Amino acid sequence: MCIHVACIRLSLLSTCRLTHLSRKGCQSTCDRKSDCNPGWASNDFSKGDKCPLNVCCSKHGFCGYTEEFCKGNEVKRPSCSISDTPVDRVIGYYEGWATSNRRCNALRPEEIPYGAYTHLIFSFATINPKSFEVSPGNYETEDMMERIGTMKLLQPDLKIWVAFGGWAFNDPGPTQTIFSDVAASEANTETFLSSLVKFMDKFNFDGVDIDWEYPVATDRHGRDEDYENIVTFMKKLRARMDKYRRGVSMALPASYWYLQHFDIVKLEEHVNWFNLMTYDMHGAWDIDNKWTGPWANSHTNLTDIQLGLDLLWRNKISPSKVTMGMSYYARTFTLTDPGCNKPGCRVSSPGEAGKCSGTAGVLLHPEIQDIISKNNLKPVLDREAAVKTVSWGNQWTSFDDAATWRLKANKLRGQCITGFMVWAISHDDEFGTNAEALASVLGRKKPDFPNFTIRPKVEDSPDLESKTCRWTSCFEGCPSGFKEVQRDGHKEIMLDTTPCFGKACCSDTLVTSLYSKCVWTGCTGQGKDACTGNNPHFLTSSSVGSGGMKACSKGEKRSLCCVSPAPYDVAGKCEWRKKAGFLNADNEKLLCEGACSSNQLMMARESGLIIGSEGGDGCYGDLAFCCTEPEKLKPRDEDPGSSQGREFQALIRKYMENPTCPATILFPQLHDKFVRKRSLEFEAAEYNVLRARAKDCTLDTWVRLLQYATLVFSVSRAGMDPLVKVWDKEFAGNYDKQLEYNNLHAFLLKYKDYEPRSVVEWVLYNPTRAGPGIRGADAASQALCRVPGSKARNIPESTISNIDSRKIDAWGGGSGYIPALDTILTAIISGAISLHYARWQYYQSSQNGNVPGPMLEMAYWLGRQPGHENSEDISEYQDQTPRPRWPSDRWVLFHLHIDPSNRNWLISENGNTYVGVSNFRVMHGQYWMHGRNGQAWRVSHSNGIYNSRDGFSCPEELGSLWYVGSRITLPDDQPEWARLLHQWGEMIYRQGYVGNRGLRMIIEPPQGGSRAEVNPHNPGELSRGVMGTSVVGGNNPYEINFILSDEGYEFTSPPPPQDREDPDTPA
Predict the structure, then answer these.
(1) Under DSSP, is residue 615 helix (H, G, I), strand (E, B) or coil?
(2) What was the pLDDT predicted at 263?
(3) Quick one: fold of 82-330+400-442?
(4) Least C-beta-crowded within 10 Å: which of 113, 325, 393, 680?
């Protein structure tokens, strides 16, 4: 709103700060207050006397930190020489959801580049909104927490922290006020801290990062009291973490808008460091913001970063407490005019979503490099902003690489900053390209890769008793572990009465070996020259020897000569001592004690007067010649790699003693290759149940073995060879050559969409069937997947993905409690399992590892009549893995995923149209759930413990697909499940679900009559989740359950009775 000149004049005469002109005249806004007091006599018209964060107050009472506000009050920045400011901290945030939300460019924990980071921060754990206790939040997150800990096997000094919060944590929902609630209550804070300690112990986290976005801010569900409460909370958190020797950090925004609500001066003493989020300075949110506007700008613009950093310097925050943020992603825009494609040009909307990131306005660095390569683009370096920009079509983005990171790092190190962090390392590619570039810029030397060669273990030396007899000081008792020595044939103890009464004390073990190695010569006065023959090592000389000997004549002394090298007992420091600390009174200063400290051996005595006559520091009494006992021999520091190699060997050997342990005792949750996102509220409790069952084998050893084995097949470098040899010799050599490293690793390289952990896990779970299963899967996938126009067997074997088996076992024969896929398919074909409903779904983005596009769900009831209790035994179709308090399986679900971006997703052969499926998945279901907003009911398959998914994928890079129902001849060497899968595909094609009638539900307008084949070259418009179609009466085809019969479509199928509607919570 503009202020009218007349009103300005009027306001100068009034007590109201602002007025404006309306039809009613000048309107006062006396209830509004300025941000600060620029010098008015009273604070009645301002919110405070000063601005938050010590920024500047303008003459009109506004707070700001740019030149127009702070002229003459410029910030004083710290200054350091870059060469004298080495980087000592490089932190990488890892997204716990990376592999479940992105179908590509999702770095697995085991792929984190070795030595690139000093710290990893796992993001995020969660806090229960009712109990305020911390937890992983869901099973997949718990699994990823365990997996990221695997990196310590390679890099033992790596610190792994856990973060709580994030932007989404304060979004509307059950967690939006958790931080405020915890910080406001002593009881809630104590609950949080107590559970946090247990949580960190369980997952071996070294520190905690608090990412509260943001206190006080009303647009982020903050409260005014957060400003003080967050300081109290962080103080208690730091005290608790200090007690358990763990670290504390806090994420800070780089914008004044949110940072003003942090009392950073008080918070500084309660953190090891701040992690300053110097990214996301600009983005699509600027478009409708009147202060920023719709202009292309970089989200890591160095000018903006410096302004954010200056807010810390204005408050004298130590540079050692600042960790600067870098990013491995970019913000993107759609240009209003493609002809104007530089910073400052007008933009209209976020940029197009990337293939992997799947979010409008965001591209990961690997995606940008792919775009640059594909379009032969030449990025432009903007030195002032320290970014590179690139434009293609109507798209624009900026990004960082080694050149821009160097500009930023030099600027920041020049301000004494030695810590850097990245959001997020899970945006990197599998080669760690960004990590390598950043490391080269920061100049940190990577640690050497560990040597896993197994060497004989270096045993600790035994506790060394003091074996040698010794004389005590005057009237001192024998030290602990020693006893008085009696004279031969007498009951009195042996005493040395030369200066006083000192006892001879010996241990109960070997006592006189030293005295056989050192001897006194006669009185010669030759010193060291007297030591010859078998005792050449001169130790000292004395006129009375060890005491009790006849004194030598003046000018003569005895020499103490030992074997060479010197005996262990006297190999340390030896010296003449006047006092050992017994006679300390003022009148005793000139008295010698003739004694040694308790950790010393007394080897000789000498008169203090003689020492004085020789020009030494004399005294009355005897001096003692004392040799300090050498410290306990310590073994050389064992190469950590050697001990790790030995541990891996021991774990495999223990496994080989009982290889059926996992499948018959532990029943560990086998991980889903087709990962997908879970709700924050879902808590996995099965591990506690399973641990109680383990007797001769433990879940801990199983998890540890998986960690090592996954590393073997995830880290490709020569340094892993010793572990490879352990795998081949101790495990694979006892089963099948297919399981040897070279063969299994080649298998994983061929099928890159499969996680090594999942495959290795299944191999260890099914060691006797894994080899034949892998070979059969190779052959089956080669036969089923094809490129249009080619014969199925012409597809190169090296490019075909295989089927993966989980809760329905597809690798052959079933597995203990788990039914085989061929058993399920046989039952469907025979009618023992019946179709309850079919339903189309649409994935809007690359969610849950899927491509955007339609998915056909087919829900089969375990029984002959859908929804009715069974009179026949159906247990052979259910997963019988022991699972207390959980319901039995009632359905088997099949998911057929279609990628409409593949130009061959529909083909015509022999007058028939076939739909190509990019991947196929199968899982069990136990409960149904109500549809949202009037949608039909569905079987729930979101249970992360018991609904792991099975299936196969055709290779995306070739564009090959499984054309369901198409006429192909399978080779004779196919496994039974592949033959049955093809037979099932032919059946659902004949029924119409993947044929003309099923396709017409999602295509509008369908061409031709109701029985005409869909034309692959002109099928009509595919409904993408919103548009209705005529076949379903103009309704959304993705909200309807249906059955196909000879009469047509049936759109009603009531759900069966069930005792509860919450499918994700145990009874």
Answers:
(1) coil
(2) 98
(3) TIM Barrel (3.20.20)
(4) 393
